[in-house]
């Protein structure tokens, strides 16, 4: 089992789960609304490595504050944690928002990473930035109160995109995705915070393409086969610009044609295989 650490960065406490092992480490970054233990099924495939799975502000066991939650702040927090722990030469692995944050952190503190693996990152095509933000109002109406993680698991398991996940991945998502509050549990990422993160996703300030051009590390972009349309807000479909890899100086594009957006929960061994192919 990993150990939970709380690290003071940028005026908050940032949670990070750490599995013991040899350096250079693997630095995992999760997607919007998730938490560090969502990486359990991938992390366990690298037992010899030190593995660090962060929890971004507003998520998991990290500090929560009122919105807004600008996307660049997540990358700044990740870079600050790397500085606090003097992390160097890590393999950066980020899913969805975590992919965006990993790129941002690499631009702020390049020595943190030897290579990046971006798993269906939320980095849109350049022309999407500055357009209408997604309507995330339904996120604010998410059920927030649960009797147990098992109740959450039983409710989610039959749903279409959760049914594609490995059962153990859904268990990790549910077990560590709620926190005790009195005689019940609440979501570790409160629905208003999650909705506010999505609202910020297409803001001009979230556009990383100027930084992408300067990323010197080798980058693997893994894209899911189910693609999100320009006007859609389908959380099970890929938000990644289809030609994103071409903007990095040293990159390769990998299409998981049969996967939906939650690639690490559907195909952890395939993600691990691409991590193994990275220059690390």
**What is the distance, rounded to the nearest whole angstrom, between the alpha carbons of the first and last residues?**
24 Å
- CATH topology term: Rossmann fold
Low-confidence stretches: none
Helix content: 25-40%
Please compute the radius of gyration using only Cα atoms.
17 Å
Q: Strand order within the widest sheet?
A: 1-2-4-3-5-6-10-11
Overall mean confidence score, pLDDT = 96
* Name of the CATH class: Alpha Beta
Structural class: alpha/beta
Describe the protein's architecture and organization:
With 280 residues, the chain is an alpha/beta fold. It has a single domain (3-141, 193-277), classed as Alpha/Beta hydrolase fold, catalytic domain (Rossmann fold, 3-Layer(aba) Sandwich). It is 28% helix and 23% strand. The chain is built from 10 helices and 11 strands. It has helices at residues 40-43, 71-84, 97-108, 137-140, 149-156, 167-175, 191-200, 209-212, 263-266, 268-277; strands at 3-9, 12-19, 22-29, 49-55, 90-95, 113-119, 145-146, 178-181, 184-187, 219-224, 251-256. Strands 1-2-4-3-5-6-10-11 form an 8-stranded mixed β-sheet. A 3-stranded antiparallel β-sheet has the order 7-9-8. Helix 3 (97-108) links the parallel strand 5 and strand 6. The protein is globular and about 50 Å long. The model has no long low-confidence stretch (mean pLDDT 96).
């Amino acid at each position: 089992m990993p150990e939970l650490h709380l690290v003071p960065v940028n005026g908050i406490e940032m949670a990070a789960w750490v599995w013991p092992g040899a350096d250079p480490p693997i630095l995992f970054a999760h997607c919007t609304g998730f938490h560090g233990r969502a990486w359990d099924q991938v992390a366990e495939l690298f037992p010899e490595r030190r593995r660090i799975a962060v929890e971004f502000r507003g998520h998991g066991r990290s500090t929560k504050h009122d919105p807004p939650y600008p996307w660049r702040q997540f990358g700044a927090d990740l870079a600050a944690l790397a500085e606090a722990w003097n992390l160097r030469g890590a393999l950066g692995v980020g899913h969805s928002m975590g992919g965006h944050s990993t790129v941002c952190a690499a631009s702020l503190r390049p020595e943190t990473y030897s290579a990046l693996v971006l798993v269906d990152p939320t980095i849109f095509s350049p022309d999407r930035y500055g357009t209408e933000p997604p309507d995330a109002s339904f996120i604010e109406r998410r059920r927030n109160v649960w009797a147990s993680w098992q109740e959450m698991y039983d409710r989610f398991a039959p749903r279409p995109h959760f049914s594609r996940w490995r059962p153990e991945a859904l268990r990790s998502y549910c077990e560590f995705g709620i926190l005790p509050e009195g005689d019940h549990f609440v979501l570790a990422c409160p629905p208003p915070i999650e909705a506010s993160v999505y609202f910020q996703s297409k803001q001009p300030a979230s556009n990383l393409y100027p930084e992408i051009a300067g990323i010197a590390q080798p980058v693997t972009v893994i894209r899911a086969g189910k693609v999100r349309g320009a006007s859609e807000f389908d959380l099970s479909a890929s938000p990644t610009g289809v030609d994103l890899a071409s903007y990095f100086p040293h990159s390769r594009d990998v299409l998981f044609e049969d996967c939906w957006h939650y690639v690490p929960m559907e195909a952890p061994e395939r993600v691990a295989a691409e991590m193994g192919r990275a220059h690390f």
